[in-house]
Specification:
Strand order of the largest sheet: 1-7-6-4-5
CATH topology: Peroxisomal Thiolase, Chain A, domain 1
Number of helices: 10
Strand content: 15-25%
Largest sheet: 5 strands, mixed
Oligomer: single chain
Shape: globular
CATH superfamily: Thiolase/Chalcone synthase
């Protein structure tokens, strides 16, 4: 039976560090206020001359180095992002050009914060169908470009970054992606949006004045949504792979809020050490969130051969899902 095996990964966080005290103009005792509510101490913002494809390019090159392969071995590049360089062309094509992946078909997908796990699902399907042998999945976002810096409830949460994973065909029956689970509920689309950013309400001087060209989120409703679907993701992935939730070595959740991670731990009786996190250092990096943590822990030796790792994302759309991977 064909499986998709993760053979390498790479990440990139911009150099510009934004500590919580950056937001003192919005809230008194910003560090305590933000950390107590989210678990975030700092995040990274892209430089003025860096776009999403620039972050993704560095992550992609690091992933190639990790996998020990050349760019011309890549058959397909799937870039998950909700902050592309521009509405067209696909940012994936810019990354393809930058890394010299001349043989790769390249395209973007957008499932907001779920984008990387959705990109991994697409990559897995391409490989398991026999269509491609080597696929690169990328999650990258530069939310610093779309935040409303007058809204303390959203602008304090996000950072920029990119992560990439390379999947390759394998016939090892007990190694690679064991199960996937993807869902969406379009009735919740208004909860996470940039109202003026496309054909429904094109950007104009009026929408800019109303700050409708910036990120909006109904935080309380999104929290309720996330805590409802997180147990569903874990239970369904384990069921499909024929394992128990307690069999998991590590969990890489979307790095949204420490309270959500506390909820998972209490719900399933997990120790905090089972969760791999960079939330305190990177904030919520949207599509890059899971990808960055995966790359960091594959390359620093935390994730070892034989480990069973569950990754999950949830976000706008509404969208949610995950993958179960045996390394």
């Amino acid at each position: 039976m064909i499986h998709a095996q993760v053979i390498g990964s790479g990440g990139y966080s911009p150099e510009k560090v934004i500590a919580n005290d950056y937001f003192e103009n919005l809230v008194e005792n910003a560090d305590e206020w933000i950390f107590s509510r989210t678990g975030i101490r700092e995040r990274r913002f892209a430089a003025d001359d860096q776009a999403t494809s620039d972050l993704a390019t560095i992550a992609a090159r690091n992933a190639l180095q990790s996998a020990g392969i050349s760019a011309d071995e890549i058959d397909c590049i799937v870039l998950g992002t909700s902050t592309p360089d521009m509405c067209l062309p696909p940012s994936a094509c810019i990354v393809q050009h930058n890394i010299g992946a001349k043989n790769a078909v390249s395209f973007d997908i957008n499932a907001v914060c779920s984008s990387f796990v959705f990109a991994m699902e697409v990559a897995d399907n391409f490989i398991c169908s026999g269509k491609y042998k080597t696929v690169m999945a990328i999650g990258a976002d530069t939310y610093s470009r779309i935040l409303d810096f007058k809204d303390k409830n959203t602008c304090t949460l996000f950072g920029d970054g990119a992560g990439a994973a390379i999947l390759r065909v394998s016939d090892a029956p007990d190694k690679g992606i064991l199960s996937t689970y993807m869902r969406s509920d379009g009735s919740g689309w208004p909860l996470i949006q940039v109202p003026s950013s496309g054909s429904r309400k094109p950007i104009s001087s009026e929408t800019i004045a109303e700050r409708e060209n910036t990120f909006k989120m109904a935080g309380k409703q999104v929290y309720v949504f996330a805590t409802e679907v997180i147990p569903e993701i874990i239970t369904e992935l384990c069921k499909r792979a024929g394992v128990e939730p307690n069999d998991l070595t590590y969990i890489i959740p979307h790095q949204a809020n420490i309270r959500m991670i506390d909820f998972i731990a209490k719900k399933f009786g997990y120790d905090k050490e089972r969760f791999l996190l960079n939330l305190d250092r990177c904030g919520n990096t949207s599509a890059a969130s899971v990808a960055l943590v995966l790359a960091e822990n594959m390359n620093n030796g935390t994730i070892k051969p034989g480990d069973l790792v569950l990754t999950m994302g949830f976000g706008g759309g509404l969208s949610w899902g995950g993958l179960l991977i045996r390394f």
